[in-house]
Amino acid sequence: MNNELNLYHKILFLELRPWTNREVAETKYKELMQGINKEPFSFQPLYEVDFPKPLTAKRKYYFSIIENEATSYLNNFQQIIAGALNEKEKQYWVHTTLTKVLSQKMREASKVIDDNQYFFQQLSAASKASTPESKIQDEAYILQYLKYQLIRIYLEIQETFSSHLKEEAISEDELHQQYFSEQAPSKSFIIEAVKLNLPLPASQVTAKPQTVQFEPKAFDFRTVKKGIIPYEAIIKDSGRFSRFEEELFSHELIDENYNFKNQHGQIQELAAIFQTLIKKGYFNKRQFPKNKEIKPVDIRKFLDHRYNSNTDKQFRTWANKPDELADFVSSKYWIDKLPTS
After folding, report:
1. What are phi and psi of 28, to 5 degrees?
2. Is 293 helix (H, G, I), strand (E, B) or coil?
3. 144, 295, 329, 331: least CB-packed within 10 angstroms?
4. For 38-72, how does the pLDDT look when each residue is reduced to its tens digit (9 = 90+)?
5. Is the pTM higher than 0.70?
């Protein structure tokens, strides 16, 4: 599952930077707002951000997408923890999210705020509409709201999953001081969330779901294809490889028929898994009786054929970016912890 705040990254560094689109008309933002639906929570949150109401169309647009990203991120994190196999994995996700993902994003937001003087005091200054000053105020509003959503996400995860913390909890005041070099406001914008009317959790639904069984297959089951090395010639330990494929199924990368699901972002993950399996020695180095070397591309072709996938481009990208691959794998607990031969 994706554990990044991609939209916030776009606002801070890429095409959604609010200071790069000052000439965009208010009518355009009103048009964009028509395509935005409020992201619903899948759980009862502890906090919400009670921020000044956005008055311009640009502020309303950014307010909506920033809020939706926070909701989506927290929904996703709930799923990650629910799918964790044990306490150690839960601790890993909580620790990594707080100390790496969110702390880094707060530092980045702080730098953008400092570099552009987007301080909260800007919002109280008087200015006429559509002037350079008012546009800077819009930008300050957007960055300040993003800042408070980041702090809210941090506090939400820290408190909800406090039993999985590795380090001492950090207060809202400390987050302001540590990451934004400022004192927290006397009246916090982060308040207790309104009680939501959520559907019953799955544990209280009486209908019994059907479980899909996964059957390990330590053999070739696809139609024979030229250039694909046979299972028995390429796999070093069939028992260990079968256990890996059960993990692949449990993490919803393949279905019960061994077909790659190819959901958003999964091609990158699958290619990283292929590279990791090679590094961890899951495959034979030579094919007998010809004593022919088995190359990484041979392994990639075997795996792509087995899972009905096409990782060629991403597989080569990872091969050329070993440091980025290592960072990606370390963020995926189950891949990083696959046994080594």
Report:
1. -65, -40
2. strand
3. 295
4. 999 999 999 999 999 999 999 999 999 999 999 99
5. no
